[in-house]
What we know:
Blueprint lengths: L21 H8 L18 H38 L2 H6 L12 H29 L6 H24 L1 H11 L2
Helix pairs in contact: 2-4, 2-5, 4-5
Amino acid sequence: MSIPGEPAGERPRPQFGEYASPEEQAARIRHPLPAAATPWPESDAPDPVEVRQRMTNGRLIDRAVAVALLAYGLLSVGQAIPLTLDPRPLLEVMGLDSDTITLTSAGGWGVAAMVALIGGWLLTAWLTWRAHRRGFRSVLWIPLVGGFVANLVSGLLITGALLSDPAILDAVLSRSGS
């Protein structure tokens, strides 16, 4: 497309600097060009093989401990499921006669505690895997925090189940002498 008043074979003059070199652009906006990066002196540079070996060994140990914690958490969740669904062994540990106490409200709370434990373990395993895939230096803290939070939530749910049942609350209060 030709501009009226200009010869057809010539290139139009740039209006906004699109043909300017980086030096010309820097001169126009009055900013100096960034200095070229200087390489590290050879004597101060660490050996890349040694650095990679140290990082790999540390990450390998960290991953192994994180997997061991996740395996222990899965074993704990598997052992806690029967206790969350039927708290009679827990009552016997507390010194209460579980045969004379009728559990009225423990079922729903126990299922909620079981869901909290399983969901907490799944979320912790997923977050650990995701952090490892993204290259975080340490993933060890994720199973520790995840296990603490999941056990705290399920413990509060079990406590709510035991304290909301009037038969268990009366048995605990009569045992304590109040």
